[in-house]
Specification:
single chain; alpha/beta; Thrombin, subunit H; Rossmann fold; 3 domains; 10-stranded mixed beta sheet; 6-stranded antiparallel beta barrel
Amino acid sequence: MSTEIGKVLGTQDAEPLEFWIAVSPDQVVQLDDVVFVTRELPNGGRVSLYGIVDILKARHEGARFDSDVFLSEQGIFPLGKSIIAHVSVTRVEPEIFVPPLPGQSVFRAAGADRHQALFFDSMNTKFPLGLSRDGEVVYGNLEFLDGSRGAHINISGISGVATKTSYATFLLYGLFQSGILEEQATNTRAIIFNVKGEDLLFLDKPNARRKPETSEAYAKLGLTPNAFSSVAIFAPVKAREEVLLPDTGSRQEGVTAFCWTIEEFCRERYLRFLFAEADDETSHLSAVIDRVEAALALEADLSPYETFDHLVDFICLSVTHWVSAAQGTIAAFERRLRAASFRIGHLIRGRVSESDRHRIDWKKKQVTVVDIHNLHDRAKRFVVGVVLRRMFEDKEKTGTARPLVFIVLDELNKYAPRDGWSPIKEVLLDISERGRSLGVILIGAQQTASEVERRVVGNCAFRVVGRLDLAEASRDEYRFLTAASRGRAGILKPGSVIVHQPEIPTPLLVQFPFPSWATRVSEVEKSGGGDPFDGF
């Protein structure tokens, strides 16, 4: 049953889209509370206005000077105390936009009223985004994620504090385990790039340090806390090693070393991803790269090139025969090719026994983790670009949007920067603009959305922020935040995020539970160490 929390204020203007309420002395109202008020119309009709509390103020009534507070506390000057709350209207039913009247009772929304206030009742398919501050489930509309009406998620926040990858993996876990995908869940896939640290290398291991209250939180969300059940982990081959062993640290077992053959590199035209810096798409260098790729793809016999360095030598000897360009452009091409070879050459091998086993096959398991955290930035860009293009081409060949493929990529600003052009940026733009129709969903994360290509961020239906630098929060990319939400983003704790989705006009504060999968080796071995996550 809904509880009355106060009355519509008469000393502040009430409008159809916002109003103030005087909070009853015996009630506790906090930010993010969902409320509603019903107004009787002269024609006998009724209009319900639903909203969210986004500002709270407490003050003395009757005080004229700031120092009156001391006199009041001493009992010399009796003053009353009042608390008022500002409500941003989220929904009006029916859509007759009239203001509530002063003195009307305002109620805390619960049950069906809360679902109506947050549009949950109109979501045909919904998935868990987390829990509200009062422990109620907050849902997202799957139609705005699976491509039916929109797609993609963008997550911003300060590194190490905003828990961006923790929230991204929680969303995946909820999608896979909640049953919302129904029979499609078995065939749905996720590719996660582990770009820093080793946190994502233990998704298949239960978290031995899970807090007792975690199970309750997962139960409210309709989930069972556990590890991801179907995970494949790939790590780059070790440099300067003949035997193809994965270059990992804490995680040794269950990891497959990945690399590409020289033949695959040439036939699939991966040369462009060695030049992954932000070059001008129309530059002479890009034309040279295109022509060299075409020439390599036509090479009949690539067996003489046992190492990538041998192939680079061949390219540098042949480039002037394949391409007509200025000497300066050729020199720039060769210089950058050799620089890339030094960082990436160990990932491209001449002879690879069981080459299929060392190829990143994202279709085998539900979740594929591609570990690139130990690689140089140039090598990271190469791996991300090659894997995403290969996956996107495979999806194009199927011609269907189902099953879905989720891509989780942190440090998005490195791969799709706001300025310049690169082959990887082109792939990510393709995914953000055409991925919806092909069932490819990008979950991108970065510290600063202002440094990411606008079209990539602009195509995201869900916008999420964790702890933000306040200077960053003032940028245009965060206009979806209200003034109150922007201020709160600067003090959010790990485990809390602010989520905006198309149907709900006001962003919602969401809390998500402590990961039920291990995020580092100490959580697998039940050893000591501080908590990496301060969620619940």
